[in-house]
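Here is an idea for our session: we take a single protein and study its fold together. To get us started, please write out a protein record for me. Start from the sequence, derive the C-alpha cells from it, and show both lines together. Go ahead whenever you are ready, and we will take it from there:
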Amino acid sequence: MIALLIQQLTVFFVMMYLIVAEIGFAVPRLTNIRQYLNYGLPLVPGSLSSWLVNSSDRYLIALFLGTAAVGYYSPGYTAGLLSA
C-alpha cells in the first residue's frame, strides 16, 4: 500500500510539473465575478430540479417495483435522453 501511494504521488508530482512547465500557473482575478454570478445563478434551480427528478424516479421505482425494474428503466431512460 505504501509503495502504491508513493508511486501515485510520484506520478502526480511529475505530471503537475510538466503541466505547469507547459502552460504555466496564474492566480485568477475575480474582477468580473458579479457578472459571472448574474449569468450563472439563474441556471442553478433548473439543474437542481433536473437532478432531483432524475434521481427520485429511480428511487421510487426501486421502492415500489424493486431493483430489477430500475435495471430495466435506467438504460431506457438514458437512451431516451440521448435521442432527445
